[in-house]
Design brief:
The strands form three sheets. Strands 1, 2, 3, 4, 7, 11 and 12 form a seven-stranded mixed beta sheet that branches. A three-stranded antiparallel beta sheet has the order 9-8-10. It is an alpha/beta fold. It contains 19 helices and twelve strands. 45% of the residues lie in helices and 14% in strands.
Length: 420
């Protein structure tokens, strides 16, 4: 049998298996017909439909659209690939799908989601934080609307700072201030001043604050070889190896698999996090203080956007758009904030109660003004995987920054061009 036939046979088998897996899900969608005289709109997501956020969005939407009802369908692990397979297979589609921003380019490139340009007004664009609009735009067209946005800030373990009699830094602290404080809060073998997970979005903010990065805006070339990127990587490696103020991954994971586990355990004094981090800390009765990220050569933060999109094959895109429009509207985004689903993507949302709860919540909101979206090149999954693999020994001090970067740069162009 020829190699081509073998490949086709394997693809056919894979599609068959995925179809069998997805059949129970597909059967849930119906055909957007009337349920008790109401038009049913199916919304596909990886979230539990019983979550407070989704329930409130559904109730508010149906109150404004009494002739319509939302039905949530949940897909767990392997969400993105299952949805892509479902769309490729045709058949009855959901009306709306939840989508993470890093999946927008590949869904758009494959024609799996619809362009929204005909629905999007200039007034709507102006209501969004610029970082959000960038995140839902691909090749000049808008393909999704925001579910919520996540900015990054620094969380300080209040108990650890107070025990060491170290003042909380002010909002203008620098990398030098940060490194000095991390050293002071480190007790060898017992606790560390700072922790960051060793995957790409765990350290990307340091790269861009120093004028470096991971990949060019067009997603075609690596930025790891820039002197500014290498300098930032040295700064982080030195905190682990020379200062010993940052634990290795094996040291951090002894407190639990979650990235916040060392902080919750009271063994790490500072960690970068988002709004969801504060929810986890409160559940674990951890007292914390929020500050903006320490300033590098530039004041920058990183934001991640979760979104809603209309899948190819949706029966009535105009009905789908009604849901997208409401979920991303001022009213919908107010629900997002009030239920701590995330930060609102709209600048028009009232954040006064959010700030009243904790004055230092302001740093989460302010960061949206100077945030950049995490890069989402078309072949980013493969590229970022290579970075993590080649950097493993670097973070342990068993490989130089320069050698680790060279190993990635050697294959970067082919990976980012989709040739590997």
């Amino acid at each position: 049998m020829s190699r081509k036939k073998i490949v086709l046979k394997k693809m056919t088998v894979a599609m068959l298996v995925m179809t069998i897996v997805l059949l129970p899900i597909l059967s849930c969608f119906g055909d957007t017909t009337n349920v008790r005289q109401k038009t049913q709109v199916t919304v596909l997501s990886w979230w539990d439909p019983s979550s407070d956020s989704l329930r409130q969005l559904k109730a508010a939407f149906e109150a404004e659209n009494p002739d319509m009802t939302i039905r949530y369908i949940q897909i767990g692990s392997g969400y993105a690939q299952k949805v892509l397979t479902m769309i490729a297979g045709g058949g009855t589609m959901p009306d709306v799908i939840m989508l993470a921003m890093d999946k927008i380019p590949i869904f758009a490139e494959k024609g799996a989601i619809l362009k929204l340009d005909k629905y999007i007004t200039e007034a709507y664009k102006k209501s969004l934080y610029p970082v959000v609009l960038k995140a839902v735009t691909y090749n000049g067209s808008v393909y999704a609307v925001p579910r919520d946005v996540t900015s990054k800030v620094m969380y300080l373990n209040k108990k650890m700072f107070d025990a060491a009699h170290i003042p909380y830094p002010n909002e203008n602290w620098t990398w030098n201030d940060f490194r000095r404080i991390a050293k002071k809060l480190t007790i060898p073998g017992k606790q560390w001043g700072f922790y960051f997970p060793k995957y790409n979005d765990g350290f990307y903010h340091f790269l861009i604050q120093n004028g470096g990065g991971l990949v060019t805006p067009d997603g075609k070339s690596s930025l790891l070889g820039k002197p500014e990127t290498i300098e930032a990587l040295h700064f982080l490696q030195d905190m682990i190896i020379r200062d010993k103020s940052v634990p290795t991954e094996s040291q951090a994971k002894q407190f639990g698999p979650d990235d916040t586990a060392p902080f919750v355990a009271g063994r790490v004094a500072m960690v970068v996090g988002s709004l969801s981090s504060s929810v986890a800390f409160r559940k674990n009765n951890v007292e914390f203080v929020i500050r903006p990220l320490p300033r590098g050569k530039k004041r920058l933060s990183v934001a991640f956007v979760n979104a809603w999109a209309i899948p190819k094959g949706a029966k009535n895109p105009n009905i789908s758009w009604k849901v997208l429009r409401f979920f991303s509207s001022k009213k919908g985004q107010q629900i997002v904030l009030n239920t701590y689903m995330g930060l609102p993507a709209s600048k028009d949302v009232d954040v006064s109660q959010f700030l009243k709860e904790r004055p230092d919540h302001k740093y989460l909101i302010e960061a949206l003004q100077y945030s950049e979206p995490f890069p989402t090149p078309l072949y980013g999954v493969d590229f970022f995987s290579v970075i993590e693999k080649e950097f493993e020994l670097m973070w342990l001090g068993q490989r130089s920054v320069e050698d680790a970067v060279k190993a990635v740069e050697k294959v970067a162009a082919d990976i980012l061009a989709g040739r590997k």
